Amino acid sequence: xxxxxxxxxxxxxxxxxxxxxxxxxxxxxxxxxxxxxxxxxxxxxxxxxxxxxxxxxxxxxxxxxxxxxxxxxxxxxxxxxxxxxxxxxxxxxxxxxxxxxxxxxxxxxxxxxxxxxxxxxxxxxxxxxxxxxxxxxxxxxxxxxxxxxxxxxxxxxxxxxxxxxxxxxxxxxxxxxxxxxxxxxxxxxxxxxxxxxxxxxxxxxxxxxxxxxxxxxxxxxxxxxxxxxxxxxxxxxxxxxxxxxxxxxxxxxxxxxxxxxxxxxxxxxxxxxxxxxxxxxxxxxxxxxxxxxxx
Length: 295
Prior knowledge:
By secondary structure, this protein is mainly alpha-helical. The protein has helices at 8-18, 22-34, 38-58, 74-83, 91-108, 124-136, 140-160, 165-168, 174-188, 193-205, 223-242, 251-264, 281-291. It is globular, with a radius of gyration of 19 Å. It starts with 7 loop residues before the first helix and ends with a helix. The mean pLDDT is 97.
């Protein structure tokens, strides 16, 4: 069937009825639509993955600092704790946290990243995929293929709701990234298309209502640390789905709910820096410190 990316149910049906993974049918259709070979489309995605790898490495620099001074160096601290065995919830967990921080901080410092699906949520997907690849020695091809599944989920969310913080709050950015990562992880560990759907639904509904309230209007506080939260949520959702636990509310209905919540959300909580953490005394002080009293 021809995918329209208007529902997760459509992706699941197409994959289940053909006996293929979601990633495979997405790759095949993209190749057909773009009039390219499967290899060419795959190589394009592989280049995206290479940028993800580079952003993780670049963001680990302990001397990294954004021009505002609000972020930088956290990823290196987390990595050091993991390397020294000082973190408490396992190497994979700590590594994923450090990678999510690294990519988000690299973005804040004007490094090249993959917007997955946005710059503000760029650390979630790379951290999820690269950490499990290294921990379980998963072939690079498997990881790259999972990006097609993640992309398909992102396309559905973008078409049926939003991936913009200015339109839907942070639920639309980190929430969407977390759902994409959960879906990809589920497929990597041989979850069925139906499990992929439940993984997406669980991840997204866990972040419903998350506001976008960047201090001083910059994509740093609390954005960087929310990327770390997003990857842990993706782990949770995929683990639950792979155990056979289902989401009572289907993925497409969760996406619809996210859209409605975004529409009901105050504009002060949608990237305007007029509410939430941005409006706290410390948030206001930092804004004055960065831009001056007049501004």
